[in-house]
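Task: sequence design from structure.
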C-alpha cells in the first residue's frame, strides 16, 4: 500500500488539478514562509485565484511574486489495527510559478470565469463590474508541475 509513484504525464497532472477542491499557496517574504488554502481555477498552464485586495498574502506577493502550490484529490486515510501501518491514499500536484496581479477588467473576468467553471458552474457569466473592480484576481503562470500518487 505505501508505494509512491511520480506522475509526469501532463494529462494526468491536469486531471488531478481538475478534481482538487482547493490548493495551498506557499509564499515567502524572505523572513518567514506562509501558506494559505485557496479556491482556484486552472486552464492552459495558468492558475487563477481571487482575493481581497488586502491581507498578508497580498503584501507578501507584492514583495516576492514567486510561489509554490500544492493541490490534492482522492485523499483517503487507510487505518489498520497497528497505528504504525496507517497510510494515506492520494493524488497530488506540486508546482511553481510567478504571481501577477491582474488589473485589466477583461483579464479579471476571464480568471473569474475559469475559477467559476472549476467548481462546476457553466457560463456564460455576467459579473457586476463594481464587484470585479474591487476584487484582486491573481494569475499564476505555471513554470513547472509534478504529480505524485500513493496507494493506487
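Answer:
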Amino acid at each position: 500500500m505505501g508505494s509512491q509513484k511520480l506522475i509526469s504525464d501532463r494529462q494526468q497532472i491536469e486531471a488531478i488539478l481538475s478534481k482538487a477542491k482547493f490548493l495551498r499557496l506557499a509564499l515567502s517574504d524572505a523572513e518567514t514562509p506562509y501558506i494559505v488554502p485557496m479556491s482556484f481555477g486552472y486552464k492552459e498552464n495558468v492558475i487563477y485565484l481571487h482575493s481581497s485586495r488586502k491581507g498578508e498574502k497580498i503584501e507578501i506577493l507584492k514583495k516576492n511574486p514567486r510561489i509554490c502550490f500544492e493541490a490534492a484529490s482522492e485523499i483517503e486515510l487507510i487505518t489498520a489495527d497497528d497505528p504504525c501501518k496507517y497510510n494515506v491514499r492520494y493524488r497530488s500536484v506540486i508546482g511553481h510559478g510567478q504571481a501577477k496581479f491582474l488589473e485589466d477588467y477583461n483579464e479579471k473576468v476571464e480568471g473569474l470565469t475559469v475559477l467559476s467553471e472549476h467548481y462546476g458552474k457553466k457560463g456564460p457569466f455576467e459579473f457586476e463590474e463594481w464587484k470585479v473592480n474591487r476584487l484582486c484576481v491573481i494569475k499564476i503562470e505555471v513554470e513547472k508541475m509534478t504529480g505524485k500518487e500513493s496507494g493506487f
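The chain is about 25% helix and 45% strand.
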